[in-house]
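Bench notes, afternoon.
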Amino acid sequence: MKAILFAGGFSLLGTLLGTRLAIRFLVAKGYGQLIRDDGPTAHHTKRGTPTMGGLVIILSVVTGYLLAKLATGFVPSASALLLLFLFVGLGAIGFLDDFIKIRKQRNLGLRSKAKFIGQVVIGLVFAIAAIRLEDDTGITVITNSISFTRDIPGTALPAFAIVIWVLLMVAGASNGVNLTDGLDGLATGASVMVFGAFVFINIWQSNQNCSFYPGPKCYEVRDPLDLAVVASALTGACFGFLWWNASPAKIFMGDTGSLSLGGAMAGLALMTRTELLLVVLGGLFVAITASVILQVGFFKLTGGKRIFRMAPLQHHFELLGWAEITIVVRFWIISGLAVATGLGIFYYEWVSGI
């Protein structure tokens, strides 16, 4: 438990202090955000705001986790290291995308094909390692079944199918956070809530783990307490970054942060056997992603008509005249309700034994 507190504290300090230094460095280098001309006009004032702040989040999470391990004397687990690999790997793809945009002064960074290939490669390495690495009791990092609050009976998939499922989870979650990251503090605040929920879930699964407390309600999850340490580091890092990212934002996380945070959410859901529960916990991200899918699909089917004034969903409300801070706070409330509902479902399943 000490490691969980240390990881969150170290990561929080890392982003609180490190982001200030990053802002100075990025401003000096002229690494500012480019703004779409067809977006809300209020966003034009954000042109030039430093971006790639996700680098500070990544460094703070990794450093916070390692310092927590050193402080408590425990060796990092395979599950935590794999999760960090997914987190950092997707962040590296996002960094390349952000860096190309800034260097070439254009809205397009990595080509969509190149970004997709990068996500697939990172996802493949993660998936193959996760289904092969076994502990002394034969438990792998992830299983070959689809899960909700635990593995659903009768959903076992062959190896190639589970790899595809992992890739879909990673792509869906990372792109969901990426689409949400359009207003000051929106994605960061929502991420704090989701990662905080995973801290609770992992601690609960550790206290009810089949390796120590066998029984009909126990959880067969590998290294849950160490996953809680990583989730705590992610929560603390996002919390600290929010100090600088809240409206008016002094820095943006960029694709560097959004892709890495989304990947971490997918990884935690896969490792904690709560894959479909992530749809509830990340309800805000799901709704915003759905708005883009609906907008594009309706536009193509009707020959140019739109459901929303603009997608993603948060920009629709901007064009309706809502203030940015109003949208962010109300969307945070929605995210909080989604997280509370997800945790309620998780706990009810354990209590009821369904």
